[in-house]
Amino acid sequence: MTSSLGPWFDYTVNGLVVGNIYALLAVGLALIYGVSHLINFAHGSVYMAGAYIGWLCITYLGTPLPVTLAAVVIGCGFIGYLIERVGLRPLQNAPRIAPLLATIGIGLVLDQVAQLLFTPDPRGLPLQLPAWRIQIGDGTIGALDLLIAGIGLFSALLLYVFLRFTKLGWAVRATALDRDAAQQCGVDVNRVNSVVFAIAAALGGVSGFLVGMYYNSIDPNMGFQAGLKGIIAQMIGGMGNVPGAIAGSLLLGLTESYGIAIFGTSYRNLFAFVVMLLVLVLKPNGIFSRGRSLPPEPLTGTFIAPSAPVRIPPMLVAALAIIALALPLVVRNGYVLQTLGLGWLYAVLAISLTLVAGTAGMISLGHAGLLAIGAYASALLAIDFHLPVAATVAAAGIITAILGTLIIFPAFRLRGHYVTIATLGVGEIVTLTILNWDSLTHGPIGLSGIPPLSAFGMPLISGTWVYEIALGALIILALTQWRLLGSHLGRTLRAIRDDDVAARSYGIALDRYKSLAFGVAGFSAGIAGALMAHIFSYVNHETFTSQASLLALTMVILGGLGNVAGAILGAIALVSLPELFRVLADYRMLIYGVALLLLIRFRPQGLLGTV
Fold first, then answer.
1. H helices within 438-509, ranges in order?
2. Is 372 exposed, middle or buried (0-12, 13-18, 19+ CB in 10 A)?
C-alpha cells in the first residue's frame, strides 16, 4: 500500500529548495537595507543577469559547474558594484525615496538590455549534474536539490564568518548599526556600501543561475517577480535582519509549495503577496522582530520639495486644447490618431497618479491595478448585462474608486518605502485575482468580444473617434482635478504630504483624506481602463502589467509631481512619441528606465516643476 505522504514530502523538499533560493536573494537585500536603508528593486535584474552569465559560460565556453559558479559570482558582484557606485552613490544625500526610484530605473534598463541582446524568447539552461534521485520513503531528493541546499548553507556560513571575524565585516555591522557614528570612527562607509552591493549581487546572481537550472528555463523578464519574492521574504523576517531573511524565505517557500499542492500553480504568487500585505498591516517590522512600531521613516512619499511650477497662461492652454481637438481635420491616418488617443488615456492614468503621488505624497507602484479593475468592470457590465457602453464606462469609474480605495485602505497607516511596496503588492494581487477568478473573469483566457464605443447604436471604432473620445475624457478629468487642487481638499492633501504630524495636530483625519485622494484617482484610472477595454475589444490579466505602473510613475516625474499639465506632457513624451516613431517602439521600456534615472539625478522637479 502506497503512503499518501509521498507527494507531501516532495512538496516539502520543493518548498525548502525554493526557500533556499529566496534566501540568497533576501539575505542580499537585508544586507543592503542594513547599511543603506534602501529596498533595492534592481536586485531581481541582477538575479536575471546571473542566469544569463551562467548560460553564456555553459553554452559558449563549456565551463564546468565550479567555474560557471565562479563566473556568476564575479560577474554579478561587478554589476552590483556598478549599481552602487554609478547609479546610487550620487543620490546618497537625497531623500530615501529617490534611490529607491533609481533602483526601479536601473532594473528597467538591465531587463531591457538583456531583452535586446538575447531576445524575449526563453532559453534552456543545461543541468551540469547527474540526473539521479535518492529515494526517501515515498519521496525523492535529487542532486540539484542537494546542491542548492549546500550552496545556501555554505553561503550562510561564509557570510557569518565574514561579518563576525573580519575587519571589513565589522565595518559592515558598525555601518548597519549607526552609519554616522561609524563614519566618525573612521569607517569608509562608501567602501562598505560597495562591498555590500557586490556581495548581495553575487548571492542574487547565484540564485538566478540555480533557478535557471532547476526549471531549465531563463528569460529576460524572470527577475521582476523573483526580486519581489526576495523583498517579501525579507519583510516577513524583518527589514535588515539577516537571520530573519533566511527564516522568512524558508517560510515563504513552504507556504507557496503547500499552496500549490492544495489550490494549484496559478495561486503561487497570490499567496506570496497576500502574506506580504498581512505582515505589513499586522507586524510591519517582521514576524521575527521584537518591535511592534513602524520604523521612523517619513510618511511622505515625495522625494523633492515643491518648486516654482512653470506657469502656463490659461489662454495658451485653451488654444492647445482647441488645436488638439481639431487635429483629426488635418491628420487622416487612423493608426496615428488611435496611437495619440491611447496616449491621452495614459495621460488620464498619469493625472490620477500625480494626485496620489505628488499631491498626497504616496508613491504608488500598483496603479495599473486600477486600470485593470476599470477595464474588467466595464467589459463585464457590457457583456453580461448588456448595458450601454457609456453607462458601463461611468460605472467602471465609480466601481474602481470604491474598490481600489477599499483594497489600499490598510496601507494608509504605513510609512515611506512601506507604502510603495504595499501599493505594488495590491496591484499584483488585483492581477492575480483576475487570473484565478475563472467564474467571473474567465481566468487566463480573458474577455473577448467587448462591445466597442458607440453612440445611438453606431459603433465608434475609427481612429478619429478613439482620439476624440479619449481627448474629451482627458480634458474633463484634467479640469476637474485642476479645480480640486485649488480647493480646500487640494490644500489639505498638500498639508498631509508636507507634514503629516502637523496636519494631524490640526485635526485633519489622515485616513479620510487619503481615501478621498485614492477615490478620485481611482475614478480617473477606472475611466481610462474602461475606455481601453472597449478600444482593444479584449483584455486579460496581462493587459495592464506592473510596467504600466512604472510608465505612469515616469510620466509624472518627467512632467513634475502634482502637476496636471506636467502629467499630460509626460504621457505625450513617453507614450505617443515612441509609438509614432516606430524605430523607437522596441526601445521604449529602455527609454523609460533611462529617463527615470536622468530625471531623478538631474531634474527631480520635472520639466514643468512640482506643485
1. 438-441, 463-485, 488-498, 500-505
2. buried
Cell of 289: 522582530
* Shared-domain flag, residues 238 and 325: no
pLDDT at 394 over 80: yes
For the chain, what percent of residues have pLDDT higher than 90?
43
CA distance linking residue 397 with residue 212, whole number of Å: 42
**Cell 489550490 -> residue:** 263
Same domain, 53 and 159: yes
Region 504-519 average pLDDT: 91
The closest of 153, 149, 155 to 31, measured between CA atoms, is: 155
At residue 416, the pLDDT reads 67
Reported as a single tens digit per residue, the pLDDT across 369-386 is 999 999 999 999 999 999
521/524 Cα distance (integer angstroms) = 5
For residues 264 and 363, membership in a common domain is answered with no
Q: What's the domain range around 35?
A: 23-128+141-282
Measured N-to-C along each axis, helices 189-215 and 43-56 cross at an angle, to the nearest 10 degrees, of: 60
Residues 329, 276 share a domain: no
pLDDT tens profile 258-284: 888 888 777 878 888 888 888 887 887
